[in-house]
Amino acid sequence: MKEFKEYSWHGTPAVEDGKLKGKTDTDYFYFFCPKCEDTQIMQILDFRFLKKEPAKYKDKYRKRLKREFIIAFELYCHKCKLHDCVKVSNIGWQGGKLKNSIGLKIKENEKRMYL
Ligand SMILES: [Zn+2]
């Protein structure tokens, strides 16, 4: 299996635009493979804090914020071998309904690469 480089924590188009879904069973959350049918669970191989620091500012939506963080998860599907990445953070949308973020394309040097 290819390894993620330190700077490569960015998902591919396979997980973007709502294609990666998941669900809880108890209070654990599972990611479902976007390429396989049904609810094929992806294994979380690793995670990394890309950001973890005290909240820099507190506006109307962030007044209860304690820290700012971005956690990246390295995901792998044993069935189809999809190896990808997803991030969870509290520095983007803070509430309301999700709007399509197409147009916020990543810079070339931020794209995921493998060793
Ligand atoms: Zn799969």
Write structural notes for this entry.
The chain has 115 residues and is mainly beta. It has one domain. 0% of the residues lie in helices and 32% in strands. The protein has no helices and five strands. It has strands at residues 21-24, 29-32, 43-54, 67-76, 83-89. Strands 3-4-5 form a three-stranded antiparallel β-sheet, with no helix packed on it. The chain has a two-stranded antiparallel ribbon with strand order 1-2. The radius of gyration is 15 Å and the shape is globular. The relative contact order is 0.27. Residues 103-115 have low confidence and may be disordered. Residues 33, 35-36, 40, 77, 79-80, 82 line the site of zinc ion (ZN). The site of zinc ion has 8 residues, from loops.
- What is the first-to-last residue Cα distance? 10 Å
Task: Give the total of beta strands.
Answer: 5
Average pLDDT level: 82
Tell me the β content.
Answer: 25-35%
Order of helices and strands: EEEEE
> What is the count of DSSP helices, taking H or I runs of 4+ residues?
0
* Bound heterogens, unique: zinc ion
Rg over alpha carbons = 15 Å
Largest sheet: 3 strands, antiparallel
Number of domains: 1
Structural class, please? Answer: mainly beta
Helicity range of the residues? under 10%
pLDDT below 50 for ≥5 consecutive residues: which ranges?
103-115
- How would you sum up the global shape? globular
Q: Describe the strand arrangement of the main beta sheet, using strand numbers.
A: 3-4-5
